[in-house]
Amino acid sequence: MSQCPSCNKTNPEGHRYCTSCGHELDQGMFEFLESNGLKEYLESFRAQGLLQVSDLLALKDQKLRSLNLPYGDFVRLRSALEAISAEPEIDTAEEASAPSVVAPVSASIPPPQVTEQHPEPTPTVSLPVKSKRLKVATWIFGIVLILLFISLISTNKPESSTDDENRKTGSEQTNPSDEATMQAMERAQQAEKELAAMREKTALAEKEKAEALRVAAEGEAERLRNAAAEAERQKQLALERASRAEMTARQQTNQAEQELARLRDQVAKPAPQEQSPDELDGLDAFFQSYINSLSSNDPWLVARHYADSVEYGYAKSNSGRASRSEIADDNGKLFARYPQRSYSNIHIKQVIPLPTSGAKINYGFNYEYNGKKRASGSTSVWATFEKNNGRWQITGWREDVNRNR
């Protein structure tokens, strides 16, 4: 049976053109490829004009390689074509002369009675097997005709010598075919082994790749878990710092409110007995010296006016007190940021003498700073001045700033 390469209709043997569409049949190409496990290349061969098995047989080894088949399929195709090429064929001239040779013999034999019978459906046989059977049958039939012819012209020749010669001839014709078939089978087996080894290596490589991907995914997941844990830890630390800052702000607010309440009580109380001029002697000069030091760029010149421990409005400790060095650092940062500073409208708002040698002074001034950026505004300061061992010192300092927008 032949399948049409155009409409895929199956046609009976012996037809060269399709009975449905008239296209030239592939002459067994479909059965040949299917029987050798190469059915997947049918359309590719048709596209290259290879419609018949004879077209493949006409190709040289180099042309077969140009089909770009996988090695295993190439070996299988070449082996199948070699097996077909190695089968013995009867020369057409000999076949044409065979009937005239046996005519004298068959003339004495009455022709067999031929009864008209309906042809039975021919079973579908793959082209290589059927072609081989037809060629072998033709070959045997030709040998029989030759033997009959020889027996007629040389009756005195021993039969045994004829049999030996026939066996020799048959062996000479079949041995090359068997050898080629064995070589093709060996090459096919070798190709199958190489293909199996390649598949095994490919499977191993795929397995190693999958394992590497799994390890990489686990590592990435572990890294993400660690990053999430670190982020949560930083969040907790930030919440703790915010809580401590809020507590510190509340404490400072409470202290400021207590200080304000204390100052209000002092203002409400009767004025204490006026201190003698000797007890406040030098306070004016000390206050003016302190105001002048604010215009310098020497933070220690300002800090020398403070005591060793001062209730300082910008103290960093929870106690609200700062040392002289901390005050110097605080003013140093201000001077570095605003190296050009000017003060105006310096005035004393209130002076409250203390029971001991000293006084609380509420003073204010306007300021204008210039440096990395400009700033201006006004401030109101409560400062406590006390005399210790005959030397005036600032023991308390707090300001309220009103910045200009």
Explain this structure to me?
The structure is a single chain. The longest helix is centred in the middle third of the chain and has 110 residues, at 159-268. This protein is α+β, with helices and mostly antiparallel strands and 405 residues long. The protein has 2 domains: 2-99 and 126-197, no CATH class; 283-403, Nuclear Transport Factor 2, Chain: A, CATH 3.10.450.50. Helix 5 (71-85) packs antiparallel against helix 9 (159-268) and helix 6 (92-101) crosses helix 8. The two termini are 102 Å apart. The strands form 2 sheets. The protein has a 6-stranded mixed beta sheet, covered by helices on one side. It contains 12 helices and 8 strands. The model is unreliable at 89-127 and 271-275 (pLDDT under 50). Strand 1 (2-3) and strand 2 (10-11) form a beta hairpin. It has helices spanning 29-35, 42-47, 53-57, 61-65, 71-85, 92-101, 103-107, 127-153, 159-268, 283-293, 299-303, 324-337; strands at 2-3, 10-11, 306-312, 321-323, 340-353, 358-370, 374-388, 391-403.
What is the helix/strand order?
EEHHHHHHHHHHHEEHEEEE
Share of β-strand residues: 15-25%
Using only CA atoms, what is the Rg? 60 Å
Number of helices: 12
- End-to-end Cα distance, whole Å, is 102 Å
Main sheet properties: 6 strands, mixed
Mean pLDDT value: 79
- Decide which structural class fits the backbone: alpha+beta
Q: Can you give the helix content as a percent range?
A: 40-55%
Strands ordered across the widest β-sheet: 4-3-8-7-6-5
Residue stretches low in confidence (pLDDT < 50, at least 5 long) are 89-127, 271-275
Strand tally:
8
How many individual domains? 2
State the shape. Answer: rod-shaped
